């Protein structure tokens, strides 16, 4: 039945055309923006997930910058520590040369002084953006990751790097306790005794022994030095004393260690002069200032060996830290790329499919317009009945 008031065919054609136009607008938006989910209206769940992931990407990009800064700072410290080790090795060569009697030790000492000044200059200059890991003992943390749990809570994780002092400045003394049967018992910043034959005495290191502390020993004119390394405690210092005495091979003088106490026995047949001191080495190379091949070439050799060992440990410590930071930086970079890929898979439009659908919808739009035009002509047939 045809009606002048209600054109059902036109209404159906108009509905179809509206639907086609709506789909056409959606496809055109996808092509223009490159996204199939551009806002929460398109797909609320996907939009929420992609937005959170996008915020994580921004966070990880900032972490990359933090790690790059950390790697550069630690890299400067590592390079400087390696150079210091090279210079200490040169000093060792001079100290070894000074062991000969027929050399000019004064000139050798002058050369040692020049190298010592150069080491100090390198340590002072080994900073990146004001951060110098070769001074002090502070710990610096670099943001390394953002960890999100299943509940959505985010926690930050850091990589911490501690300064390893290679300064030459001397520190304050740490209390040591000297006891025994010699009549020279007491507590002082430096302990000394003249130990009679057949007697024993003990040296107990008290207080907090920290990284960079310098232990000085002198037994019957023979000087020893030991620099405390990272993580070592009173027991390690006592072991160092024990090893120094036993390695010295002083006939009749032996040492045994238990905890933080060293018991030294004198069976030489005569008295043995013993001195010990532990200083709070604000500079890990503080012992370098005491090296003097003119007055004590033997002690200088022992000292430089310990300082080289310490500098090598510092270089290795920074090398390990730098490697870890670089590995984490590479991981964060790859993780960021993976997140971006995931976000793209969720939100990016398939432009090939969109292009094909665009052509299809354009054809449907043209047909819809034709159908609507035909439907609008239906009332004209009713007018023919009244002619």
From TrEMBL:
Family listed: Belongs to the bacterial flagellin family.
Alphabetized UniProt keyword annotations: Bacterial flagellum, Cell projection, Cilium, Flagellum, Secreted
Domain of life: Bacteria
InterPro entries named in the record: Flagellin, Flagellin_C, Flagellin_N
Cell membrane keyword on record: no
Molecular function, one GO term: structural molecule activity
Location in or out of the cell: Secreted; Bacterial flagellum
SUPFAM superfamilies: Phase 1 flagellin
Originating organism: Hyphococcus flavus
Gene Ontology CC annotation, any one: extracellular region
Residues covered by the Flagellin C-terminal domain: 304-386
Name of this chain's protein: Flagellin
Physiological role: Flagellin is the subunit protein which polymerizes to form the filaments of bacterial flagella.
Chain ranges of the Flagellin N-terminal domain: 6-139
């Amino acid at each position: 039945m045809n009606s002048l008031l209600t054109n059902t065919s036109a209404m159906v054609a108009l509905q179809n055309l509206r639907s086609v136009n709506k789909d056409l607008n959606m496809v055109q938006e996808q092509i223009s923006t490159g996204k199939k989910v551009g806002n929460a209206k398109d797909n609320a769940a996907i939009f929420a997930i992609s937005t959170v992931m996008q915020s994580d990407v921004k966070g990880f990009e900032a972490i990359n910058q933090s790690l790059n800064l950390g790697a550069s700072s630690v890299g400067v410290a590592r390079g400087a520590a390696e150079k210091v080790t090279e210079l200490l090795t040169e000093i060792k060569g001079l100290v070894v040369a000074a062991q000969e009697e027929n050399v000019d030790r004064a000139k050798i000492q002058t050369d040692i002084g020049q190298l010592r000044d150069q080491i100090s200059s390198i340590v002072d200059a080994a900073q990146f953006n004001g951060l110098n890991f070769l001074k002090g003992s502070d710990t610096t943390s670099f943001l390394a990751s953002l960890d999100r749990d299943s509940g959505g809570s985010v926690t930050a994780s850091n990589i911490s790097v501690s300064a390893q002092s290679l300064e030459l400045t001397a520190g304050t003394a740490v209390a040591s306790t000297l006891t025994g049967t010699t009549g020279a018992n007491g507590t002082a910043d430096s302990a000394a005794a003249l130990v009679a034959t057949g007697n024993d005495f003990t040296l107990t290191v008290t207080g907090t022994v920290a990284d960079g502390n310098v232990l000085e020993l002198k037994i019957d004119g023979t000087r020893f030095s030991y620099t405390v390394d990272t993580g070592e405690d009173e027991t390690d210092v006592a072991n160092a004393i024990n090893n120094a005495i036993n390695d010295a091979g002083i006939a009749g003088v032996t040492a045994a260690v238990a905890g933080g106490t060293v018991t030294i026995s004198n069976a030489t047949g005569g008295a043995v002069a013993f001195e010990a001191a532990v200083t709070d080495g604000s500079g890990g190379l503080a012992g370098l200032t005491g090296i003097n091949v003119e007055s004590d070439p033997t002690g200088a050799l022992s000292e430089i060996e310990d300082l080289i060992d310490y500098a090598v440990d510092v270089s290795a410590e920074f090398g390990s830290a730098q490697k870890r930071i670089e590995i984490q930086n590479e991981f964060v970079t790859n993780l960021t790329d993976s997140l971006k890929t995931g976000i793209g898979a969720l939100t990016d439009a398939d432009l090939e499919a969109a292009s094909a659908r665009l052509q299809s919808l354009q054809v449907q739009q043209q047909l819809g317009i034709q159908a609507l035009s035909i439907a609008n002509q239906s009332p004209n047939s009713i007018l023919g009945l009244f002619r």
